[in-house]
Amino acid sequence: MKSPSEQxxxxxxxxxxxxxxxSRCVEPPALDVPAIALDEVLGAPRRSAPALPHVTEVDxxxxxxxxxxxxxxxxxxxxxxxxxxxKYNPKIxxxxxxxxxxxxxxxxxxxxxxxxxxxxxxxxxxxxxxVSGLPAVTLQPAAGAHGELAGLLAIRAYHTDRGDAxxxxxxxxxxxxxxxxxxAMCGYEAVQVPSDERGGVDLGALRxxxxxxxxxxxxxxPNTLGLFDENILAITAAVHEVGALAYCDGANLNAILGKTxxxxxxxxxxxxxxxxxxxxxxxxxGPGAGPVAVTDALAPYLPGPLVAKDADGRFSxxxxxxxxxxxxxxxxxxxxxxxxxxxxxxxxxxGLTEVAEQAVLSANYLKELLREAWPLPYxxxxxxxxxxxxxxxxxxxxxxxxxxxxxxxxxxxHPPTVYFPLIVDEALMIEPTETESKATLDRFASxxxxxxxxAAENPGLLQAAPYTTPVRRLDEAAxxxxxxxxxxPSPDR
Amino acid sequence: xxxxxxxxxxxxxxxxxxxxxxxARPLALPAGQSEVELAEHLLSxxxxxxxAGAVSFLGGGCYDHYIPAVVDAVLSKPAFFTAYTxxxxxxxxxxxxxxxxxxxxxxxxxxxxxxxASMYDGATAFAEAALMAARVTRRREVVVSAAVxxxxxxxxxxxxxxxxxxxxxxxxxxxxSDVAALRGAVSRQTAAVLVASPTFYGTxxxxxxxxxxxxxxxxxxxxxxxPVLLGVxxxxxxxxxxxxVAEGQPLGNPMSFGGPGLGMFACRQDHVxxxxxxxxxxxxxxxxxxxxxxxxxxxxxxxxxxxATSNICSNHALxxxxxxxxxxALGAHGLAGIAEACIAKAxxxxxxxxxxxxxxxxxxxPFGYEFTLRFRGEVRAMQEHLLGRGFLAGLDLGAxxxxxxxxxxxxxxxxxxxxxxxxxxxxxxxx
Amino acid sequence: MYPKELKYDREHxxxxxxxxxxxxxxxxxxQDQLGEVVYVDLPxxxxxITAGDAFGEVESVKSVSELFTxxxxxxxxxxxxxxxxxxxxxxxxxxxxxxxxxxxxxxAEVDDLLDADGYQAFLAEEA
Lengths: 493, 431, 127
Fold this sequence. Notes:
The complex is a heterotrimer.
Chain A: H1 38-42, H2 57-69, H3 91-97, H4 100-103, H5 115-132, E1 136-138, H6 144-161, E2 168-172, H7 178-185, E3 189-193, H8 203-209, E4 214-219, H9 232-241, E5 245-249, E6 269-271, E7 292-294, E8 306-309, E9 315-318, H10 334-370, E10 386-389, H11 391-397, H12 401-410, E11 417-418, E12 427-430, H13 438-457, H14 459-463, H15 476-481
Parallel strand pairs in A: 2-3, 2-4, 4-5, 5-6
Antiparallel strand pairs in A: 1-7, 6-7, 8-9, 10-12, 11-12
Chain B: H1 2-5, H2 10-13, H3 35-47, E1 55-56, H4 69-75, H5 78-81, H6 93-110, E2 114-115, H7 122-137, E3 141-145, H8 150-160, E4 166-170, E5 172-173, E6 176-177, H9 179-185, E7 190-197, H10 207-215, E8 220-225, E9 243-247, E10 263-267, E11 280-284, E12 290-294, H11 301-304, H12 317-355, E13 359-361, E14 370-375, H13 379-388, E15 391-392, E16 395-396, E17 407-411, H14 418-429
Parallel strand pairs in B: 1-15, 3-4, 3-7, 7-8, 8-9
Antiparallel strand pairs in B: 2-10, 5-6, 9-10, 11-12, 13-14, 14-17, 16-17
Chain C: E1 7-8, E2 13-18, E3 21-26, H1 28-34, E4 37-41, E5 48-49, E6 54-60, E7 64-68, E8 73-78, H2 81-84, H3 88-91, E9 100-104, H4 116-126
Antiparallel strand pairs in C: 1-2, 2-3, 3-9, 4-6, 5-8, 6-7, 8-9
């Protein structure tokens, strides 16, 4: 029998299990207009009540506090997830987007009543154009993948307009999964370009693959190995020679702010992940934002409307002349745009360059601390992130990168990205970001080295880790074979 | 750190950047501001958004509902908002369980068996529903009612422009879908019929009849819904819908100048392998404890790459969390009460506006808390004048489609008091 | 691990022929690489399959692999038990883990298959 003082378990108690039938939190306001006969007015009988929770505000407060206590965020500790740029989320951003003048504004208000919002968006468009070296910017896409879709559709429209419909898009073997998925969604065939032994695009292979049936190449630079492709100018030149365009996945922009710009590298289009480079919070999976910046040649095709500023300093909305059409409702993830704008204004020109310098410095430092115990598939200066391989640990001790990741949780550190990019066996991708102290980096390195020792001393310990987290390893196969994707009330209610 | 790396300066670390690409000047951006200056700058920008103080009847897919204080209190917990996607479930049970609960609530509201963890907004969820129907039926054509929000239809057209779908738009009639024309447009090449109830005009559709027309030819029915109205209206899942999508912003999310929103997406269990977006499932850990994980990942881009159900790599987790907390705060009783208040106030205003003689009814169809009337006069001038009197007087539908010139839609939420409604009607009467 | 009486191909399928009907599944190597199989997507009885084409997919928690057929013909039987117990593919890949039976339209295609030794040599090369 449960003791009367026993609290609900930290995990596994659903909100549906709390409260009682007459629990209430918020009541609707008293009706100040005549009541209506709902069935008559709607022309249909009213529904039977949906089985939603019936809880008090105390129940809600405690339930979500319990849930939060089992979650690890950037505010909980070090989060070196490669390719995600888990930098600290400044709280001024949160204050800014909640200002009633931003939060309580409707997207269809007349432009004269939202000049502040439009000015913020225009200012962000300008800042992202400057950072990217590409003059035309749309803030509409809701995420990086969404930006990829918009950018690649713009490229498609560009070719179609020239009566030059092409069929293939080149994607490196190290590419993030969204790249080929986007290629398919845009009706193109994804063709893989191999990487060379230095981890960059194999130029010879690229030249052989390029032809007038290629619409574009999708690249990240620095790439998913954290390496800057020194052949980038030759690559984009070769692409342009066959009349194709170069698309840049901006996930790794944090490494190059103020040092180089995708536009100057020869890219024609770029998406930027505001939730990576520009400090907007990841929110447990979103919302982010994926603005797209393009050359003048691609500008007419962008999804609109964009914010324009006239000679009198008034802001208005205007659709690009040959727009591919909108890719979502309304103007963009404005609440996220406010946070990014705030960050850029706070950090400023010098600060942004320091971001890149510190990010790259910290990554190279960490790489040096770890290289003895952890094989480096590409032994050269990295940018803001680097990839280690856990293959030696697997061969010698039967310990996989997955086991290392789970053991890190016991040390209070979020694991790096694992098993990506696909071209490195047992990959461990580490991105410290610029907001971590040297002490944090030193501790992380010593923990990883300790784990390598544990792998040798007691592989079983790692294979069954973690031990100290709110739940331990979960049966993911059962989740698929006996799917339970929603709570349902029991039939006797 | 430099010493350990063996570099002389940070510049050494960037020597790999070719000369031709190196930025030789500082970025043309202002210097950073101190927090106190920045706060002042942001306040002054926010102050120039004057609409926040006006009495608003704007709708069109984004609604001014009351958000209980407890919602933002939960959203502001750093453990929720600074966390990443829950790929390491052992330290992400908070996010995962909250999403599972959200999924459960979406199923209850929509009457469907499975919900995903959310998408960007209603419009993209709508487009993805069309693509999903094409995969499930292995057909290319989709039939869309012109009564659906024009931005949703435009988003669908953009997604379809790459060639995966052929989109046929069937004109509306009397502010609702022309049900006979819809049925006539459906063939054995049709993957789905797509409608919304309420429509862009606020009117309610005859879902069961539309469903029969779609199913007769083996096509799926996609229905766009309003989540507040689902507190009192028959859920589309019980009326024949195969996929239900919605803009979830009215549940716990501020209007925020149109984004971020919340793309609600629900479908049948049978079709789950073709459903786009993330999904959370319940399972147990090695000690037998209940826990939650992202599941059915093999549908997604990081595994299936160019064969993925979608390129989508995120969800609007924080907005879904807000919706979940909001629904907990209201409960079924509260949600129904809010819906009834909105509907009652809207019907009161509609009758009163018609009563002024300045607006006339055009549609017979029932409506929820948004309705469309024809204005007897110049819409732009009327709205500008009323703005000067402190009112955002509805949506000029002629701005979306010239064929709808003269039509104005009004949304009335529970926040609009009798006093506000009456003074608005008085202003209109004096036009 | 690689029964001598079966044939194999380079996509890690095994094949057992009885008259003009071939039974197919995936080899020990394939199921080991995949990890626990959670779903098998198979064609329907009556479908025509062509040598070299994908006829289905097998999924583990974190991966998907296409199933390729080295033989052409009509699908005459499909292992329905895999719908409820996909892990049978791991537990008994050559027995209860069989996937499809095909009535061959071109029995000569069987000559291109590897025997057990040939398959093991192929595996050693690939490693």
